Amino acid sequence: MKRRHVLASLGAGSMALFSDPRKGRLFAEEVPTAKKNIAAGYRDPWIEIGLDSIVWNFSQIKKRIKVPVMAVVKANAYGHGLVEVSKALEGAGADWLMVGKLAEAVQLRQAGIRRPILNFGPFDRQDCEEIVARNISQSVFSEDVFLLDEAASRQKKKASVQIDIDTGMSRTGIPYDRALSLVEKIAGLARLKIDGVSTTLTEDHEFDEEQVRRLLAVCLSAEKKGISLGLKHAASSAGIFESPAFYLDMVRPGITLYGYYPNARTQKEDPLNLKPALKLTAKVTFIKDLAPGDSISYHRVFTAQKKTRVATVGIGYSDGYPPQLGGKGLVSIKDKKFPVMSAVTSNHIMLDLNGDPDIQVGDDVILLDSRKNSGITADVLADLCGVSDYRILIGLNPLLPRRYPGR
To answer: Which residues are catalytic?
Structure first.
């Protein structure tokens, strides 16, 4: 019988009595039907975020750079939860918040965030009314900026913009050698206010220096014409650790806010004593003993050569747990480490318990820890996967419940 037929044959609406180890009491739960919705199952994975750690990291950055900070909260605050993280950073004194999509900026305004917000992402004609009405500063680098001017005129307001100048990244932005003409046009629009001018560094130190020179040359030419450009900014987390010359009027830290560094060198040196903020936990959902010759998962990726005790954990690549960790990763249960077996599927991983008799169904399994010496922080997992820690954090499914202890 196919899996979908098995599932269809299971009736809905039955009652199950079970213990929730997170709350320490018994619950009678009705198996959800199409008419009943629950936020999360008791054995589904979840994420805990230490907002105090994020605030600590922010304060460490402020001590180092002494200029305003635009906190980058794009991509669901790098997997940490857009609204809650933004509220914490607003309370800590972040001067600006930066998002990568207009929907994120709107969500923050709807949540009551009052700090200036820069949408570094794209916009279209249909978005302009929202941008102006919500007082969102929009990154611009083409004559689409006239659409914002028109929307501001209709609303009898001023629209805020920041001019994105391409100094060598070649991703977005008006090329630096053609930027002055656009800057002059924008400055001549009565309904627009220029909040700032930015560029994105390539993180090649020598070329970054050239990029900053190109940006400042454009700014100097504009200022000689009497044009005020607001805050100049170029340095992301990497730039903060390269040179104070990159700080300009404001910096844009992202990954550093969340307790990690932009590269292996700074991660090892840990000059700011950063605190990772995110912990990913799931549950043991099943335990079985394999006899020699028994196999597991699709395509029989593992065949037992000896008696092997295996735990199934309710998390997989659909939750953002990297499939590359199959056969490489470790997890922690009751402060003991266990290897992840080769099978990482959409909703499950399997662990070799090494015969440990103490592990039980319902035990917490820590897959990504916020403790620096745990051996399973995001940078460690990233090294095993051959990717950056950005991908580990941002890749976590935004539908996983985020919890904020103490808040």
So the answer is: 74, 298
| Contact between residue 204 and residue 170 where contact means Cβ atoms under 8 Å apart | no
**Token pair listed for 291:** 């006899």
In this predicted structure, what is the pLDDT of residue 23? 37
Strands (E), 223-363: 231-233, 278-290, 295-296, 302-303, 308-313, 330-333, 336-344, 349-352
Q: Which residues pair with 86 in a beta bridge?
A: none
Beta bridge partners of 49: 278
Distance CA 390, CA 379 (A): 9
- Given a contact cutoff of 8 angstroms between Cβ atoms, the answer to whether 71 and 257 are in contact is yes
pLDDT digits (tens, 9 = 90+) for 68-103: 999 999 999 999 999 999 999 999 999 999 999 999
For residues 313 and 390, is the Cβ–Cβ distance under 8 A?
no
Neighbours of 325 (CB within 10 A): 21
Task: State pLDDT tens for residues 105-148.
Answer: 999 999 999 999 999 999 999 999 999 999 999 999 999 999 99
**Per residue in 129-139, is it b (16+ CB within 10 Å) or e — as a string?**
bbbbeeebbbb
CA angle 256/399/403 to nearest 5° reads: 60
Q: State both tokens at 15.
A: 């009652």
Which residues touch 5 (CB under 8 Å, ≥6 apart)? none
Answer whether residue 11 shows pLDDT above 70: no
Pairing of strands 349-352, 159-166: unpaired
* Residue 31: pLDDT over 60: no
What is the model's pLDDT at position 110?
Answer: 98
Separation between Cα atoms, residue 19 and residue 39, nearest integer Å: 17
Helices (H), 277-347: none
Angstrom distance (rounded) from CA 266 to CA 317 = 29
So what's the pLDDT on residue 131? 98
**Mean pLDDT, the chain, integer:** 91
Q: Does the domain made of 51-269 have the CATH classification 3.20.20.10?
A: yes
The per-residue pLDDT for range 218-272, each reduced to its tens digit, is 999 999 999 999 999 999 999 999 999 999 999 999 999 999 999 999 999 999 9
Token pair, residue 168, equals: 């060598």
Q: How many CB atoms neighbour CB 308 within 10 A?
A: 20
Strands (E), 245-348: 278-290, 295-296, 302-303, 308-313, 330-333, 336-344
CATH of domain 278-369: 2.40.37.10
